[in-house]
Design a protein that fits this description.
Layout lengths: L1 E7 L12 E7 L10 E10 L3 H6 L18 E8 L9 E5 L5 E5 L4 E2 L17 H13 L7 E5 L4 H12 L3 E6 L2 H9 L5 E4 L5 H8 L4 E6 L3 H8 L2 E9 L3 H4 L9 H6 L3 E4 L9 H13 L7 E5 L4 H9 L6 E5 L8
Parallel strand pairs: 8-9, 8-11, 9-10, 11-12, 12-13, 14-15
Antiparallel strand pairs: 1-2, 3-4, 3-6, 3-15, 4-5, 5-7
The structure holds NADP nicotinamide-adenine-dinucleotide phosphate.
Length: 339
């Protein structure tokens, strides 16, 4: 049996282009290929994430570069077809599969997926998964919030930003979104409940941010880098906490993000560099809290869904250009139970 997979055709330069990735066909793994401790899984929902841009260029934390012709990595919600001990046929797991229809995975790397009533399983790739944990770590470990603080979040409608913004609002803070474009600015306030939003593309966005934060910025979650980071840091309040989380601008081969020292010193600010993998210890508390908030309707999620593996390269390009609206998911297959 043949399967589709997406492989690296060319190392991306600047904004990733669809031609950098290529759809390929090869023999799908079968039950006979599974050895002890492994499982055969069928990919259902594939997660598309910004860190993959760094992985493709061979510059994401310690991960090895993807060779030309190599499978594009990525996590999925997958259905167990050939289980290992402790797992069952038909069970849903969250696991690294890469961009392909079928995968053999180590059972020890697969996390069982269970969702609160009414929450889509793909939330385990977004607000209840790695991006959500990132936001939870930023807010609970580094922001040191007290009610009434002004909290600014960039990429504020994405899975990391929207989770952080909602957690900060629920902690009694005044939340301000920095987003790209008027549509997302509306979404930030009307759907995600930010008190105000600012379009980072507007020429006077720094003045608008200052107007939305009359007492200055007490805590800032930076997902953008570049000019957005500089613009927000210029508005810090005394004792501000800045969480450096993502550098969207720089991932696209933009210039290195540079921080101005003067406001950081003058405002006695604290900077935290965040890498989600350091915060696994928070996962049980994070999962319990966010699952409760989702179930009770006090937290919202938003997904941008694409149908079929062939749509993955285009979906990734949209994300890296900042055109996505919500967590980007590619539906690779549906379960019999879904139809
Ligand atoms: N440190 C960690 O451990 C960790 C873990 C997970 C994610 N992250 C980072 O968190 C950030 C958000 O991730 P996410 O998964 O929630 O993705 P996301 O917000 O859905 O997508 C990224 C968003 O970045 C915004 N953006 C800001 N400046 C941009 C620029 N110059 N070019 C393109 N887009 C730009 C865009 O939104 P607007 O147009 O609305 O600005 C875009 O939609 C990313 O930087 C990611 O790398 C870090």
């Amino acid at each position: 049996v043949l399967q589709q997979r997406v492989v690296l055709a060319r190392i991306p330069r600047g904004f990733v282009a669809e031609e950098d990735l290529r759809l390929a066909e090869e023999a799908a793994p079968g039950p006979g290929d599974v050895v002890d401790g492994e499982m055969l899984v069928r990919v259902l929902d594939l997660s598309i994430d910004p860190y993959l841009r760094g992985v493709l260029a061979g510059r994401h934390l310690g991960s090895a570069a993807v060779p030309l012709g190599g499978l594009v990595p990525g996590r999925s919600i997958a259905e167990v077809v050939v289980p290992s001990s402790g797992h069952a046929v038909g069970e849903l797991v969250c696991v690294e599969t890469g961009w392909q229809e079928w995968a053999i995975v180590r059972a020890a790397d697969a996390q069982r997926v269970s969702m609160p009533e009414g929450v889509p399983r793909s939330a385990a790739l977004g607000v209840l998964g790695m991006p959500g944990l990132t936001a939870y770590a930023a807010v609970t470990r580094f922001m040191a919030l007290t009610p009434g603080d002004t909290v600014v979040v960039s990429a504020a409608t994405g899975p990391v930003g929207s989770t952080a913004g909602q957690l900060a609002r629920l902690a009694g803070c005044l939340t301000v979104a920095v987003v790209g474009g008027p549509e997302k600015a509306r979404l930030a306030t009307e759907y995600f409940g930010y008190a105000a939003s600012v379009d980072r593309r507007a020429p006077d966005w720094v003045d608008r941010l200052a107007a939305a934060c009359p007492d200055g910025v007490d805590a800032y979650l930076d997902n953008a880098g570049g000019e957005v980071l500089r613009g927000v840091v210029a508005q810090l309040a005394y004792g501000a906490r800045v969480v450096l989380c993502g550098l969207m601008d720089q991932y696209n081969d933009g210039p290195p993000s540079v921080l101005p020292a003067t406001p950081l010193i003058g405002r006695r600010a604290t900077l935290h560099g965040l890498v989600v993998y350091d915060h696994e210890d928070l996962r049980p508390r994070f999962t319990a809290r966010v699952a409760t908030l989702l179930r009770d309707g006090r937290m919202r999620l938003l997904e941008e869904r694409h149908a079929g593996l062939a749509a993955a390269p285009g979906a990734f390009c949209r994300l890296m250009r900042g055109e996505n609206v919500g967590k980007v998911i590619v539906e690779v297959a549906s379960r019999d139970a879904d139809t």
